[in-house]
Amino acid sequence: MAERMHTVEVFEGVRLPGFICTPESLQTACSFQFQDSDVLLVTFPKSGTTWVQQVLSLIFCEGHLWPVLHLPNWSRVPWMEQVSFSHLLSQLDPTRPRLLTTHLRATALAPALRKSKTRVVYVARNPKDVLVSFYHFHRVANFLPDPSSFEDFLDEFLKGTGFFGSWFDHVKGWLGLQQDLNMLLITYEELHQDLRGTIRKLSNFLQHPLGPAEEDLILEHCSFSFMSQSSVVNYSLVSTHIMDQSRGKFLRKGVVGDWREHFTPEQDEKFNAVYQAKMKDSGLQFPWTIG
Ligand code: PPS
User: I need a labelling partner for 192 at 20 to 30 A (CA). Which of 6, 25, 166, 227 fits?
Assistant: First the structure.
């Protein structure tokens, strides 16, 4: 795969890193046969994927921490669109619900999902913070191009021409299916503000109620400080040719509102205007205020 490090895969008009996605792997994702017991985590990149992968693994671990402590997040909750998916899927514990992840848009997976009662957990994050986190990640991940400047990166994000496409289309596409699919929306901000309450909400949705001791165990193993030190979630197992964390950590800051340290007042104004135009008719409610 090393020769695909800088390959760009265009899928449904969206640029994806060819290092992790191929036409075959994308086809496998779109024709996947979901089971009613599956749990699908859906995110636009940098919205809290790894955090919720960890929480989902912990909710279903029944107090047995071995996988959480020893298996990387990408093998516990594999990405459906990635080349490694078929192999990782075959390694999942057949006695537990299959926990799956995707960054793909709703148009790609909705037809397959509609055939099942699969529970979908959509995690959204303030797009200003998503943008900042993604900007830094582009500098770390060698399978993504180095951003030329923050301003150019912001313009691409607003136009939706960057990797993984438009944040606006992703969120509106998936959340427009809330009536059709068995879906729960949670936000990165909610996880920050009330981690225990959000975990409870998740476990109720997943029909996997937790006792107070289980909740405590989950809280302990999904904190930013714990995850930053854990090699199976901080991506230190990945070769520096793929992710060079001397350029910035994968678990970078883990805070709400870091965009304020990056945006100029002009950039903020530009962002707000596009956000208003694209989101005003969406009817969606989020914990952030933009514009
Ligand atoms: S990816 O590449 O799409 O899987 O990235 P993703 O995991 O969605 O997003 C990475 C950001 O999530 C932050 N993160 C956390 N924040 C708080 N607490 C915990 N436990 C946690 N785990 C991951 C991570 O630091 C990235 O955000 P930034 O703003 O860059 O720090």
Answer: 166
pLDDT tens-digit map of 1-10: 668 999 999 9
Distance 210 CA to ligand 1 centre (A): 24
Q: What is the DSSP string of 135-154?
A: HHHHHHBTTSPPPS-HHHHH
CB 28, CB 86: distance < 8 Å: yes
Calculate the alpha carbon distances from 254 to 91, 125, 261 in Å. Answer: 30, 12, 14
The pLDDT score that the predictor gives to residue 234 is 98
Of ligand 1's listed atoms, the one at least distance from the Cα of 125 is: 8
| DSSP symbol at 133 | H
Q: Using a 6 Å CB cutoff, which residues line ligand 1?
A: 43, 45-51, 129, 133, 136, 222-224, 227, 251-254, 258
Tell me the pLDDT tens digit for each residue of 163-188.
999 999 999 999 999 999 999 999 99
- For 121, the 3-state DSSP assignment is strand
Q: Which of 218, 243, 251 to mutate to test the pocket of ligand 1 (most atoms within 8 A of CB)?
A: 251
**From ligand 1's centre to the CA of 115, what distance in Å?**
31
DSSP helix/strand/coil, 210: coil
pTM confidence score: 0.98
* CATH superfamily entry for domain 2-279: P-loop containing nucleotide triphosphate hydrolases (3.40.50.300)
DSSP letter at 34? Answer: -
Catalytic residues: 103
Mean pLDDT (whole number) for 122-149: 97
Interval 235-253: pLDDT, tens = 999 999 999 999 999 999 9
Ligand 1 atom 10, closest CA: 46
Contact indicator for 125, 33 with CB cutoff of 8 Å: no
254 alpha carbon to ligand 1 midpoint, in Å? 6
Instruction: Identify which has the larger pLDDT, 1 or 57.
Output: 57
The answer to whether residues 73 and 54 touch, using CB atoms and an 8 Å cutoff, is: yes
